[in-house]
Each structure stands twice: as C-alpha cells, then as structure tokens.
From TrEMBL:
Superkingdom per UniProt: Eukaryota
Species in which this protein is naturally found: Staphylotrichum tortipilum
Keyword vocabulary terms for this entry: Signal
UniProt protein name: Antigenic cell wall protein
InterPro entries: Cell_wall_mannoprotein_1
Origin organism lineage: Eukaryota, Fungi, Dikarya, Ascomycota, Pezizomycotina
Keyword Metal-binding: no
Length: 170
C-alpha cells in the first residue's frame, strides 16, 4: 500500500517527462525539416532539376508534421515544465517557418518561370492544414489555463503561411 502510494507519483512524473520529451523532440524534428526545406529553396538556382530537393524536403516535412500530430495525440497531458519545453520548441519553429516561407516567397519568380507556382500554392495549403492540425493536437495537451497563451504562441506560423499563400495565389 505504502509502496503503491509512493510509486504512483513517480510513474506519473516519468510519464509526463517522457511525453514532454516526445512532443518537444517531434517539434525539433519538424524544425530541422523546415530548415532543410529553407536551405533547399535558398540554394536553388531556378533550374527544373533543382526543384527535386525542394520537393523531397517538402514531402519529408509533411511526413514529420503528421508524425508530430500523432505523437501529440498519443501524449499524456503536459505539466508546467513540459509545457515550457514545448513553448521553447514552438518559438524555434515559428522562427524557422518565418525564414523558410520567406525564402519561398523570395523565390516566387523562379517558380513562375517553370509554371510551378500553382503546385507550390497547393502544397502550402496542405502544409498549413497539417501544421494547424499538429498545433491543435499539441494545444489540447497544454494545461487548460495556458491554452490561450499557447494559441498566441503558434499564431505567427499560420500568419506566415497566409503570407506565402497570398503570394502564390494563382
Ligand atoms: C517574418 O517575420 C517578420 C518580422 O516579424 C515579418 O515582417 C515577416 O512578414 C515574416 N515573414 C513571414 C513569411 O512570415
């Protein structure tokens, strides 16, 4: 009886720790994939063959976002320290999304030349939707008193997508 009482909080603590690590590390993976896509876009000279790495990184990113959504859905609710970890990871992602979508916006004319802008537009729509699904899944695990704050924290990501979608709108 005493043992159970002692072990239960420990088990709960380790579960929260594990899930915090999982959502945070999923966000870190999404962040890395976002940066890789940005690098592919920035180093692209505008040739057709050079779009292959962009397509590959874009697909990889979408897969990671979907994995992150599943990780968040499977996660236990986050405690305060775990929420702070996730907030830090989110801030990083906000900056990467800004940079990567900024690079994409700057490359619009190159995509136009290859008639690829409508494809980019479609892809951006998919990415935006997938990212918002991931955000929703994560916010659902944040303590209820902090959910509005969390929504504010991820809002710039949707804003970045809207800017990019406006730019690529056919
Ligand atoms: C990136 O952030 C800057 C500064 O907040 C903002 O002016 C710019 O519109 C953002 N760009 C994108 C693509 O989100």
């Amino acid at each position: 009886m005493k043992f159970t009482a002692l072990l239960l909080p420990l088990t709960l603590a380790s579960t929260t720790l594990a899930s915090s690590k999982t959502i945070s590390s999923a966000l870190a993976t999404v962040d890395a994939a976002t940066t890789k896509l940005g690098t592919a876009v920035t180093s692209w000279r505008g040739d057709l063959l050079g779009t292959l790495p962009i397509i590959a990184e874009s697909t990889a990113l979408l897969i990671e976002v979907k994995k992150g959504t599943k990780t968040a859905k499977d996660s236990a609710p986050l405690d305060l320290p775990a929420t702070l970890d996730v907030a830090t990871a989110t801030n990083k992602l906000v900056a990467s999304v800004n940079t990567t979508l900024g690079a994409l916006i700057s490359s619009k004319k190159k995509f136009d030349k290859l008639l690829l802008s409508p494809i980019i537009y479609g892809n951006l729509g998919l990415q935006k939707y997938a990212t918002e699904e991931m955000s929703k899944a994560i916010i659902a695990k944040v303590p209820s008193g902090l959910q509005d704050l969390a929504k504010g924290l991820v809002a710039p990501i949707s804003k970045s997508f809207e800017l990019a979608l406006d730019t690529f709108h056919p």
